[in-house]
Specification:
The chain is an alpha/beta fold. The chain is 46% helix and 9% strand. It is globular and about 100 Å long. The termini are far apart.
């Protein structure tokens, strides 16, 4: 029986070798692949990652911009995106696509991952075949053409349920604060490039050959807000640096944004002038003769909107929607 022990020993050694080899290929380094930290074999994890999910959604209102957009989800600041989400609850899903520190050129680098990709189909028959709206409306015997269906189901003026469609109905674009920084700033973007980038965003949505073609999308360009020069100078001095923002520079970018919007025949909000008008009215009621007084009442740090500034912007957006697309003003029930 003495020969049995060496044989068992060799067998145990062989099993251990096989286990080590398996662990090397399929062990902890490849098993801890679940997003929640659970053990998951790589082939199972790959399958999970490759799965696609389809969630019922409302139509989309997207807000694209810099930090004044990113921070606008904060209800404590009366953020204008938060106000839009409340205004359009059970009407549209409001997506915040704000990127702190971005100018239009930097946003242009990632825009392909931000805008929805659409299936381009010029043939109405093809559009009818692929459109969820068409299938829904055909079932209800509403109409037979996709363009007629869109008109039949809009306006969504009463509270709705998700799942009918997920069309990009409105995109709001707000850039310029970073673009207009001084030339030595890393975020500075020449004004002609700024204009070209804004037009590029518009073209992506309007060009039938674009993979982001969104014929139903309404487009609204918003100018950058005012800059509180005094606050910016104070902050720069406290940091032993030079100011990067000046209101007169931002004003030229605001004018350029309007120029682009008018040339492209899209809606726009002149936030810069709107805030200047409110600040001028505010100054009438204060005793100081400092011409820079008043901006702090609408800006947190000289560039970012506070509660009052956000209220101005939301009011201007609301008025612009009501003027250009009255069907998009919901009737609350």
């Amino acid at each position: 029986m003495n020969w049995v022990w060496p044989t068992l020993g060799n067998l145990m050694l062989l099993c251990m070798t096989i286990m080590i080899a398996y662990t090397t290929c399929n062990g902890p380094s490849s098993m801890f692949t679940g997003l929640d930290g659970r053990f998951m074999r790589r082939d199972v994890a790959t399958t999970a990652v490759n799965m696609t999910y389809s969630y019922p959604t409302y139509d989309i209102l997207m807000v694209l911009g810099d930090s004044n957009t990113q921070f606008a989800n904060d209800p404590a600041k009366n953020g204008f995106v938060a106000q839009l989400a409340e205004f359009y609850q059970r009407q549209m899903d409001v997506l915040n696509r704000g990127f702190r520190g971005y100018n239009t050129s930097r946003a242009r680098e990632i825009i392909g991952s931000v805008l929805p990709k659409t299936s381009v189909a010029q043939d109405s028959t093809t559009t009818d075949d692929i459109s969820p709206l068409f299938k829904f409306a055909k079932k209800l015997k509403l109409t037979t053409r996709a363009d007629e269906i869109t008109k039949a189901l809009w306006p969504y003026q009463k509270q709705n349920y998700p799942g009918i469609s997920n069309i990009l109905q409105l995109i709001i674009i707000l850039f310029g604060t970073n673009d207009s920084r001084v030339e030595w700033s890393e975020a500075y973007n020449p004004i002609d490039q700024y204009a070209e980038d804004l037009q590029y965003f518009i073209t992506l949505l309007q060009d039938p050959d674009s993979e982001h073609y969104s014929p139903d999308a309404r487009i609204m360009i918003i100018t950058p807000p005012v800059v509180g020069d005094r606050k910016i100078q104070e902050l720069a001095k406290s940091r032993n640096t030079e100011p990067e923002w000046y209101n007169n520079r931002t004003q030229t970018y605001a004018a350029k944004a309007i120029e682009v919007a008018q040339a492209a025949n899209v809606a726009y909000v002149d936030l810069h002038t709107g805030m200047e008008d409110v600040v001028a009215e505010y100054r009438k009621n204060i005793s100081s003769t400092d011409v820079l007084d008043g901006y702090d009442n609408y800006l947190i740090d000289g560039i970012h909107l506070n509660v009052n500034g956000s209220a101005i912007l939301f009011g201007l957006i609301h008025d612009t929607i009501a003027k250009n697309w009255p069907e998009m003003i919901p009737l609350k029930s």
